[in-house]
Design brief:
The chain is mainly α. It has five helices and no strands. It is about 50% helix and about 0% strand. Helix 1 packs parallel to helix 5. The longest helix has 18 residues, at about 95-110. The chain is globular and about 40 Å long. The two termini are about 20 Å apart.
Length: about 150
């Protein structure tokens, strides 16, 4: 399973981000490419312990039972719901958001598991640093596939 802590996996993701086009159209979902990149950046903030969205009732109820979706080898299903606080609806500058996301990935990867958030995921609950690393890779892969890279 790919893990964003692995330098090769992080480099692969960064290369795919670099290959995104500001005019790319989504294969599913409602976000445009700049909004998607900003969304991924906001997700990085959660894993880095810079943002603490509250857990909702459905996550508290079933999150721990479906948590393996974060770190198994199966691709994330299309059109899954997202954490409401990181759903991006306003206009964003693609190049600014792209650079911001790349820097957050590099920082998270270089900080390593030791500096990963201990705060629970808003839906899935408590994740180990290893689960966060796999989940971040999987989340980024999901959205990059959404835009064809």
């Amino acid at each position: 399973m790919e893990n964003i802590y692995d330098q090769l996996h992080a480099a692969e993701i960064l290369n795919r981000i670099e290959n995104l086009s500001p005019n790319a159209k989504p294969q599913w979902g409602t976000m445009n490419v700049a909004q998607m990149v900003a969304h991924c950046s906001s997700f990085q903030d959660i894993a880095m312990g810079n943002s603490f969205p509250p857990r909702d009732w459905i996550g508290r109820l079933i999150g721990r039972f479906v948590k393996p979706i974060v770190y198994n080898d199966k691709p994330t299903p299309t059109n899954m719901s997202t954490i409401p606080t990181i759903r991006i609806a306003d206009d964003r500058d693609f190049e600014t958001e792209k650079e911001r996301l790349k820097q957050k990935i590099l920082t998270f990867q270089s900080n390593g598991p030791e500096k990963c958030s201990a705060h629970p995921h808003p839906f899935f609950g408590k994740l180990t640093p290893e689960q966060w690393g796999k989940g971040i890779y999987k989340h980024l892969d999901h959205h990059l596939r959404q835009f064809g890279v």
